[in-house]
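Case study 2.
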Amino acid sequence: MPTPNALLAVAGASLIAWGDARTPCVIEPTVEIVPAVRQLAAARSRIAALEAENAELKSQAASPLPQPAVAVEPVVPATEITWRTDLATAAAEAAQAGRPLLVHVTQENCAPCVRLRAFWRVPNIVRWHRHFVCVKATPEQAAELGVRSTPTTVVLMGRRELRRFGVVRSEAHYARELQAAYLAAKAAK
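Prediction:
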């Protein structure tokens, strides 16, 4: 049995409600009750429609995306520099690709080198390195390039040295050095 005073139905012009747990009573509707019941019914139907729309959107989101008709190369985020360790192989790759060769000479126990290596994880710096074929030089390779201190960065186009710089003071300074090296390589082509 419904709870006391629970609204059950609208029957013609009269409203049937349970006055107490045993006996129903008929109440004449007031002007305020009937529009409120209609608004409640409209709101419930709107909620049902929104829930159905929401369920449809969820099912669409769960379905796999259509595959493109043409193969698309995946976008690789700028999070890591691709390093080479062999100078001769990297120089051949740079010549074939028409890109400049960027040679970094660093040491493990050098404070400015540690700061430079920290910049290699910064997305803006990583993006600048994508314009170059990057090499981490060994001490023997550094001697061939005439490097006497660390850190030193040498930019080569073929066998021609375009730019050389050492300690970088900040991320912005390093980005400016890489930009200048890139522009020098572009002008040398």
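Residues 1-16, 71-75 have pLDDT under 50 and may be disordered.
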